[in-house]
Hints:
Blueprint: H1 5-53, H2 59-142
Helix pairs in contact: 1-2
Amino acid sequence: MKFRFRVVIGYLMGMEDRLVMELSRLRREAESIRSEMESVTLGVRTGVARAVGSGELWGGEVQILGYLVEGSRVRLADLGRRLEYLEREIEEKRDQLLDLVKRRKGLEKLRARWLEKIMLERERSEQRFLDEIGIRYFGRSLV
Length: 143
């Protein structure tokens, strides 16, 4: 059975492409979560500033403001956990991608050495053939 460098290298390149796409998706999702966290934080700040800036707060307003802050705190905690998970996933995918690139580059170097070896063998074979023709031609010219 012949070892097919092109097939293996092509397979690794396909895996790299899939990992790059997955890494890109994870990064977009993490950026979306960061944006949502900023939006929630800004919403709380705006709500509190608006309530405090209006002057006198009633009991119901304070309770509603407390619900806003507590709900936002819980939402930010959930988003923070999701962001930590995504950052771990991104790191794992980045490591996998680096490993695949190293393996592919190693196989490409091995393939290049193999092709060089084949070319040298072919050149030697052709040179032997030409030498044989030259020797026979020279031998005939002497007779």
